[in-house]
């Protein structure tokens, strides 16, 4: 069955890194750090992603950072709220960056 | 039934993935912080979702959904979908991802 609208190019499932998405592909089944919009970060094991950076992460720890202003001292208090989600789909339009985890883990 | 071009089929990893979760219970967390628990009834190529028998996980903060049984959620308002890990084949996902990325190379 010939597909009329596309040429079949040879597909190399191998190890060459050409595009930014290939860099992320190297992190499949590894822990990754994801910086997201609204001062959120997630660390988890990357199981799937696509070109929109939609992702599925396992054992994901989300950190939400908020700033509160103390009315008397006018001090800014940074608070971090963490929670763990065993298996999560993350929509790509919230993602800012994806990288190997920064702390030694 | 839906018709897709060859080009479109190559970009449907998560559409196919969510179709395997139809009938399972998920929690959809929206960008406005509302979390909706329900049974996944259907999904489309935009990852719009229809959930049945929904419950809001924090009804004190969001009482306006109390009488709603089913809902349609536009894909673009989703932040997270909490998935049942027992129904997720991580090896299959990884293999499908590798193929999808390779197939989408320019």
From TrEMBL, chain A:
Single GO molecular function: RNA binding
Main subcellular location of this protein, as a coarse class: nucleus
GO cellular-component term (any): Lsm2-8 complex
GO biological process, one term: mRNA splicing, via spliceosome
UniProt keyword annotations, A-Z: mRNA processing, mRNA splicing, Nucleus, Ribonucleoprotein, RNA-binding, Spliceosome
Residue span, Sm domain: 19-104
Database matches in PROSITE patterns: SM
Compartments (UniProt record): Nucleus
Protein role: Binds specifically to the 3'-terminal U-tract of U6 snRNA.
Quaternary structure note: LSm subunits form a heteromer with a doughnut shape.
Family: Belongs to the snRNP Sm proteins family.
Name of the protein described by the UniProt record: U6 snRNA-associated Sm-like protein LSm3
UniProtKB/TrEMBL annotation, chain B:
Cellular localization per UniProt: Nucleus
Name the record gives this protein: U6 snRNA-associated Sm-like protein LSm2
Annotated ranges, domain Sm: 13-87
Signal peptide: none
Pfam assignment, any one: LSM
Protein source organism: Pristionchus fissidentatus
GO MF annotation, one: RNA binding
Gene Ontology BP, a term: mRNA splicing, via spliceosome
Family: Belongs to the snRNP Sm proteins family.
């Amino acid at each position: 069955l010939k597909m009329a609208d596309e040429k079949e190019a040879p597909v190399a499932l191998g190890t060459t890194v050409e595009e930014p998405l290939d860099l992320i592909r190297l992190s499949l089944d590894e822990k990754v750090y994801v910086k997201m919009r609204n001062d959120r970060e997630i660390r988890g094991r990357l199981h799937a992603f696509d070109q929109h950076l939609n992702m599925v992460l396992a054992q994901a720890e989300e950190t939400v950072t908020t700033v509160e202003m103390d009315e008397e001292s006018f001090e800014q208090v940074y608070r971090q709220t963490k929670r763990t989600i065993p298996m999560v789909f993350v929509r790509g339009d919230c993602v800012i960056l994806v990288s190997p985890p920064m702390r030694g883990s | 039934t839906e018709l897709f071009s060859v080009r479109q089929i190559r970009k449907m990893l998560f559409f196919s993935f969510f179709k395997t979760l139809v009938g399972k219970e998920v929690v959809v967390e929206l960008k406005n912080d509302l979390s909706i628990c329900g049974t996944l009834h259907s999904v489309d190529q935009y990852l719009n979702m229809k959930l049945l028998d929904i419950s809001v996980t924090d009804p004190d903060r969001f009482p306006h959904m109390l009488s709603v049984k089913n809902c349609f959620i536009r894909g673009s308002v989703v932040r997270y979908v909490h998935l049942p890990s027992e129904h997720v084949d991580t090896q299959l996902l990884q293999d499908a991802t590798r193929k999808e990325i390779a197939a989408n190379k320019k």
